[in-house]
Amino acid sequence: MKSRINSTVIILACVGTGLFLWLLLSVSRDTFPYVRMPSTRVESHETTAVPEQKLLTETPPAYIPNTVHYVYILANTSGDFNFAFSEVLSIYGTAQHLKPDTIYLHTNAPPAALERARSGEAGKYTRLLFQVPNLAIANVEVPTHTRNGKEIHAMEHKSDFVRVKALRDYGGVYLDFDVHPLRDLKPIRESGFAAVTGRQHGGEVNSGVFMNKPHCKLIEMWADGMHDAFDGQWSTHSNGAVTTISEQLVSEPGEVLIMERQAFAPGSWGQDDTVDLLQVHDGETSALDMMDPDGNLPIFETEKITRFSAIKKNPDFADWSRTYLLHAFNHNQRDFQVHGFDRITPRYILERKSNMARAVYPVARELYQQGLIAIDDPYKFNAE
Ligand SMILES: *[C@@H]1O[C@H](CO)[C@@H](O)[C@H](O)[C@H]1NC(C)=O
Within 10 A of 143 (CB to CB), how many other CB atoms are there? Predict the structure, then answer.
């Protein structure tokens, strides 16, 4: 009898401790969704690439893993990262909407550059980007030649080879740094398809956004075929090859799902689309003017529609209902005059007067409320 009581007490104590720890963990996660706890910070800074052997022997996952992969190659490995606010918005949008198990940054940066990135020596945005929850650094070799000896000159093309190899080995979601998640991808990742790609302007599949299980047919064919396809042109080996492979494999049950353009890349690099995305609508009230006395910026809820007749489109603004990922193609944003727009700054997003700002405002708002950005921070620190 006595021993039974003792064991009951012990079990209760264990359950109690477990509950307490679980509560503690969930509370700290909810309170600090962005700022990493010190213990995990050390841990994830140590993380490097999963050994290839381990990846190959694992049984394939049932679904596309909830890991996200970015690639950033330093042209000069003695130099520094120099991330901009727009890139911080991309990775924190990933953290907020996708809640990935791990965000991998595949890079050739040596330990010294990584250290300067974490310490703040490479700018506030670079440090912020390196503080995103669950970040892991994966060291990569940057290819200089294709398998058949053709030289790969452009950094973008080197990145193409790195990303496809990474996604072949790890599986997960690949995102360019100008892609902004607007909602969770879980329903697509867990649709049962081994790979999901999306169309862009002009009808090709976009290689700036895709997701797949490790070693699935699409990624193996692409990783192999891009060496033969490479001809030095801008996108023969990337968009070109993945378009041909995606379309071919749709005929094989479960291999590839191709999403419509609006899903991943609604705009384009063209002038009209860029102006439409970025221009400021002067008549709108700035969200900054709606700040409450406690310094809280407003939250804008999306209205849930239950009846066809209730669907009303605002002709002045884009409707992001069909968009999971907004590929903003922002390497071209300075090519034309865009009314009211100069750069992607905290103020520009927090005012919430453009399609771009409306899309990523929830991410910028969270960063602001956490005290991680200031309204008048520039688009980039220590600019070139
Ligand atoms: C690489 O970066 C270092 C440090 O900023 C600089 O001193 C060096 O000149 C750079 N090299 C090239 C080739 O640009």
Answer: 16
Residues ≥6 apart with Cβ < 8 Å to 61: 171, 213, 214
pLDDT number for residue 310: 86
Cα–Cα distances in angstroms (integers) from residue 160 to residues 151, 212, 343, in the given order: 14, 16, 26
DSSP string, 296-362: PPP--PPPPP-SGGG----TTS--GGG-SEEE--GGGTTSS--TT-SS--HHHHHHT-SHHHHHHHH
pLDDT tens per residue, range 184-225: 999 999 999 999 999 999 999 999 999 999 999 999 999 999
Determine the distance separating the centroid of ligand 1 and the alpha carbon of 314, expressed in angstroms.
Answer: 50
Evaluate whether 85 touches 344 at the Cβ level (below 8 Å).
yes
Tell which residue, 373, 375, 359, has the closest CA to residue 131: 373
Q: CA nearest 107: which of 57, 66, 155?
A: 155
Q: What integer pLDDT is reported at residue 54 of this predicted model?
A: 52
78 lines ligand 1 (CB under 6 A): yes
Per-residue pLDDT reduced to its tens digit, 129-162: 999 999 999 999 999 999 999 999 999 999 999 9
pLDDT attached to residue 336: 83
Q: Whose CA is nearest to atom 2 of ligand 1?
A: 79
**Is the pLDDT score of 17 beyond 80?**
no
For residue 161, the CA-to-ligand 1 centroid distance in Å is 25
Mean of the per-residue pLDDT values of the chain: 88
- What confidence tens digit (pLDDT) does each residue in 322-341 have? 999 999 997 666 778 999 99
Q: Whose CA is nearest to atom 4 of ligand 1?
A: 79
76 CA → ligand 1 middle, Å: 6
Rounded to the nearest whole angstrom, what is the distance from the C-alpha of residue 77 to the centroid of ligand 1?
A: 8
Give the integer Cα–Cα distance in Å for 115 and 89. 22
Rounded (5°) CA angle 310-311-317:
140
Q: pTM (2 decimals)?
A: 0.86
Q: Which helix (H) or strand (E) holds 137?
A: strand 135-139
Cβ atoms within 10 Å, residue 119: 11
The percentage of residues in the chain with a pLDDT greater than 90, rounded to a whole number, is 77
- CB of residue 79 inside a 6 A radius of ligand 1: yes
Residue of 74, 77, 78 with the most ligand 1 atoms within 8 Å of its CB, for mutation = 78
